[in-house]
Amino acid sequence: MKILFIGNDRIGDFILASGLIAHLTETVPGARLTVACGRSCIPLLAEAPGIERILPLVKRRHHRHWLDLWRQVAGTRWDLVVDLRNSAVSRLVLARAVRRLRRMPGRVHRVEEVGRVLGVDPPPPPRIWLGPAQRARAVELVPDGPPVLALGTGATHRHKQWDPERFAELALRLTAPDGPLPGGRVAVLGAPNERPSAEPLLALVPADRRLDLLDGVPILDAAAVIERAALYVGNDNGQMHLAAAVGTPTLGLFGPTPAFHYRPWGTNAGFVQTDRPYEQLRPILEADPEASESLMGSLPVEKVVRAAEALLAGVR
User: 3-class SS at 65?
Assistant: First the structure.
């Protein structure tokens, strides 16, 4: 069965929809998937079974990337097209069945929206496929030892970033002798361009307990590292969703983005919101979309500590 899956170009959105790929490959007999997605998402599929072809969606002016995709898929008669972008491509190809994502009214999570594309209830949870190579590399980067607190200080925009000094205070409290992760190591993960925002945190964590993983660790290796962690705490970004997808207890930090739609999804996942609610912060962001200042200032460390402790206490 030939299936065209038109996915997202952002890592976080792609991860939230990854359960649908797993659902198709595991429940549709003879499924052969062609996946179109952003280049940054392609490495997430390196170990995924049932993927016949991956087509990178490279953005071009005047939306010409959709024309590029159409040229690559128009010659095939598809049994099913799943279009999470609601694009013109799914309207211009030969297909026996087409299913498109539509935004649902109300406080609906992205994973629930994705599940409704194929009428899957409960919706399929996000999935990250890891192989022996990634897990072996993770052991090299994070050898066995005291528990690991993984932190993600980066975000696509400054307005979603919690201050690194607060991350440092959080790390020291959670790994203190009387904390939930006594003597724990602190792993800081992210892209190389996120190092400047993480340097104040790295400077405040004792060297013997600091794991600096900001030098371009491949995304699946990073997922395997996070899988070995006792807890992940991070801003609202793709890495937060990566952590929840591998099953690590994950606490997302939210301010000007809607947690009801983008909170980490999973049994061991939770979130904490700034004292100023999203409804108050969103108008500020809309007035200045390129804001260079963080809108996470009303999230105190104490609130995050309590949420992390409660999450760890309830881990299944």
Answer: helix
Task: Report the distance separating Cα 116 and Cα 181, nearest Å.
Answer: 39
Q: Cα separation of 313 and 147, whole Å?
A: 15
Residue ranges of the chain whose pLDDT lies below 70: 291, 316
pLDDT in tens, 172-225: 999 999 999 999 999 999 988 889 889 999 999 999 999 999 988 999 999 999
Q: What is the pLDDT of residue 306?
A: 98
Give which of 119, 55, 46, 111 is closest to 87, Cα–Cα.
Answer: 55
- Give the pLDDT score at 189: 96
CB contact set of 35 (below 8 Å; sequence gap of 6+): 5, 7, 21, 45, 51, 53, 54, 55
Distances (CA, A) of 99 to 81, 129, 175, 226: 6, 24, 47, 33
181, 175 in Cβ contact below 8 A?
Answer: yes
Task: Please state, in angstroms and rounded to a whole number, the distance separating the CA atoms of residues 30 and 59.
Answer: 31
Amino acid at 13: D
What's residue 301's pLDDT? 98
Q: Is 232 helix (H, G, I), strand (E, B) or coil?
A: strand
Q: Are strands 185-189 and 80-83 parallel, antiparallel or unpaired?
A: unpaired
pLDDT, residue 185, reads 98
